[in-house]
Design goal:
With 683 residues, the chain is an alpha/beta fold. The protein folds into 5 domains: 2-204, 3-Layer(aba) Sandwich (Rossmann fold), CATH 3.40.50.2300; 225-320, D-Maltodextrin-Binding Protein, domain 2; 344-460, no CATH class; 471-620, no CATH class; 629-682. The protein is built from 23 helices and 19 strands. α4 (67-70) links the parallel β1 and β2 (76-81). The longest helix has 36 residues, at 352-387. It is rod-shaped, with a radius of gyration of 45 Å. The relative contact order is 0.09. It comes from Athetis lepigone. GO terms for molecular function: ligand-gated monoatomic ion channel activity. Pfam families: Lig_chan, Lig_chan-Glu_bd. One of its GO terms (biological process) is detection of stimulus involved in sensory perception. It is a multi-pass membrane protein.
Length: 683
């Protein structure tokens, strides 16, 4: 309200005869009444949220009349510029006013500038920096300087516009009155070398002659116009099938494009950017231009872009993106470790804590067996001494069954033998030992059955793979990370996550994904892209290796690693279709894309695009329950350990025999039984 009061103060100071070139126009108030009629039509037929008025001092008097009185129900944001202002680089006050109009959501712009060059520079600035809402409805004065070939790209973006061309009353004709011609841009027809506006209506005597709709939806039916569509081969968005004659394109975004072409009635003309294999999406060059797919969009050569464009501020600055039709998991393609754990086959069935528990039970049970055996032996000795000293007979079978556990070493050994389901050579005497033996056998049966079942599963299935599945594991692996484009590197460098920043420090860009896959197979690289595309290059590389020279493949097989897609997503990024900057096609295209997503067609097309790849991946990674020699490394290692320990014990016994036993003064090789009997008595 304060702005309106200040505005009226300015208008009261202005004089109507200040600009004599527009004296007739001001006196008749034709432009005032025309604007009132246009705004009333807009408010009646369309939803007007706010009106932005941009004028100079020449046309300031237009707003001194009844315009605001007859349109009090709609808010205004007014910007008055000086005639010397360069609107390609406006001053701070003008810029803030334009930003306020965009922030308030003004969807109607009334631009009355006497200088057509000044108006054209305003349009160029507003389009470049998105200060003006190009999809709003515009009312401007007709000026031939607005139709120069350098501004033709503007009229591919601002299509909801009415040009007001004033025709004076001809002298000598009594019935001839001044009138306005209302015209618009010829969208969707392409503008050739000369801009020819299309007449919409004529306003005369405060009345519209044809009473046609002023702002029709020009994008609902494009009348079969040809739209340039630049594409980039990137699975699953765009899948290019090459043949001898031409390339056949398919994929999710191609199917969406065909749906839009059918509903909006246009014909797509797909093509690839120059050197697309090298430049791909494209980057900013030294001269300020862009290469690749983005270069076609920035230069205006393409209307639509297909190529798995991420919904990021970087792409939004250069193009317009549709609503996301899917969200992709972006992660790393990493190498699998070459570590072979077949030698650990015997210990793999149980975890570490389970093995510790088994060992503790073995030691504790063996000690209990030894204690019970010693107690029973002492009881037998006591009973025999009590009966009669002359009845004691030194016989090896005097204590049947107790020699099994009479010594701590034998007790542990026989307890270990029961754990391996080896029968005792003789049933022990003593009910305490027998009861403990029975319950220990039940424990051994349960433990052995579990061990055998787990061992069977390990031998039947492939060896477990050692993979990288988290960012922390990737950072700790010291593998060089990389991907395509400097924007991917900037994403990691500017991240707030510590691990992402460390990845950004050693991130290297690479152009060829198959070359990156080869580096990953060498175990020195990790490639960053979406998970579907990583599956594609993995399968493609395997297929390429299968058709290569078999000798070379065999030579590299032992040095190369399997490829693994990291299970954790670094980020889930929305994916969209690109339109040229400030494209009028985006609003209606968003509606159709939303419907396509809601009915599930995008998911169906994604499955179709990835079906062949997933089939090859499944057939190659099929689990085969086969037994081979490599899986028995653990058994041979255990056997080798047993041979080694036995040989060491044998060598120790021989050393003990020759150095200690044979040098004993009481040693007699002809009476060894007497030697050992006397020696045992001493002990």
């Amino acid at each position: 309200m304060l702005k309106i009061l200040i505005l009226w103060g300015l208008i009261g100071v202005a004089k109507q005869d200040t600009f004599p070139i527009l004296k007739d126009l001001h006196e008749r108030k034709d432009l005032d009444f025309l604007l009132i009629d246009l705004i009333n039509v807009l408010m009646r037929d369309y939803e007007v949220t706010c009106i932005a008025i941009i004028c100079d001092e020449v046309y300031l008097n237009v707003f001194a009349g009844p315009l605001f009185k007859r349109t009090v129900s709609v808010p205004f944001v007014m910007t008055v510029v000086e005639d010397y202002d360069d609107l390609l680089s406006p001053n701070f006050v003008t810029l803030e006013s334009l930003r306020a109009a965009r922030k308030e959501g003004c969807n109607v712009y009334v631009i009355l500038l006497a200088n057509g060059l000044q108006a054209s520079r305003l349009l160029r600035f507003g389009d470049r920096h998105r200060i003006l809402d190009t999809r709003a409805k515009y009312i401007m004065l007709h000026d031939f300087r607005l139709f120069h070939s350098d501004l033709h790209y503007i009229w591919r973006r601002i299509v909801n516009i009415i040009f007001l061309k004033y025709h004076k009353k001809l002298a000598g004709l009594t019935r001839n009155n001044a009138w306005f011609e209302l015209s618009t841009v010829p969208f969707p027809n392409p503008i050739k070398s000369i801009f020819v506006p299309r007449r919409v209506d004529i306003w005369k005597n405060q009345n519209f002659h044809y009473k046609r709709p002023l702002f029709v939806d020009k994008t609902s039916n494009l009348n079969g116009e040809v739209l340039n569509v630049v594409y980039l081969d990137h699975v699953p968005s765009v899948v290019v099938t090459k043949n001898n004659v031409s390339n056949k394109i398919g994929g999710v975004e191609v199917e969406i494009l065909h749906t839009l072409a059918e509903k909006m009635n246009f014909k797509p003309r797909p093509y690839q950017a120059a050197n697309a294999e090298i430049h791909k999406w494209g980057q900013k060059q030294a001269n300020g231009t862009f290469s690749g797919l983005l270069g076609e969009m920035v230069s205006g050569g393409a209307d639509v872009a297909l190529g798995n464009l991420q919904y990021t501020p970087y792409h939004l600055e250069l193009t317009d993106l549709s609503i996301p039709y899917t969200s992709q998991c972006w992660t790393f393609l990493t190498p699998e470790a070459l570590t072979d754990n077949s030698w650990k086959t015997l210990i793999l069935p149980f975890k570490l804590y389970m093995w510790i528990a088994v060992l503790l039970v073995l030691l504790i049970t063996g000690t209990i067996f030894y204690g019970l055996a010693k107690s029973h032996m002492n009881l037998q000795d006591y009973m025999q001494i009590q009966r009669a000293n002359n009845l004691v007979v030194e016989d090896s079978d005097a204590k049947p069954g107790l020699y099994l556990f009479g010594e701590i070493v034998n007790s542990i050994l026989y307890t270990y033998g029961m754990l391996l389901v080896v029968s005792l050579p003789r049933l022990p005497v003593g009910w305490s030992i027998r009861l403990l033996t029975g319950w220990y056998w039940l424990y051994c049966i349960l433990l052995v059955v579990s061990y055998r079942a787990s061992m069977t599963a390990i031998l039947a299935n492939p060896a477990p793979r050692v993979t990288i599945d988290t960012l922390q594991e990737l950072v700790d692996s010291k593998v060089t990370c990389g991907g395509w484009g400097t924007q991917a590197k900037m994403f990691f460098e500017e991240s707030l996550d510590e691990y992402s920043q460390r990845i950004g420090e050693r991130f290297q860009t690479i152009d060829d994904p198959l070359q990156a896959a080869d580096k990953v197979a060498q175990g020195v690289y990790a490639y960053y892209d979406n998970s579907d595309f990583l599956k594609y290059i993995t399968v493609t590389r395997k297929k390429h290796n299968s058709t290569s020279n078999q000798t070379e493949v065999t030579a590299r097989k032992d040095t190369q690693r399997n490829l693994h897609i990291m299970s954790d997503c670094v980020v889930n990024i929305p994916i969209s279709i690109g339109f040229h900057k400030n494209s009028p096609l985006k609003p209606l295209a968003d509606i159709y894309i939303r419907r396509v997503v809601e009915v599930g067609l995008v998911e169906k097309w994604l499955n179709d695009a990835m079906y062949h790849i997933r089939t090859l991946e499944t057939s190659e990674d099929e689990v085969k329950a086969l037994m081979n020699l490599k899986k028995l490394y653990g058994a041979f290692i255990a056997l080798a350990i047993g041979y080694t320990l036995s040989a060491m014990c044998l060598i120790g016994e021989l050393i003990h025999w020759h150095i200690i036993v044979k040098r004993d003064p009481n040693f007699d090789k002809y009476a060894l039984d007497l030697y050992y009997r006397n020696k045992n008595k001493k002990h």
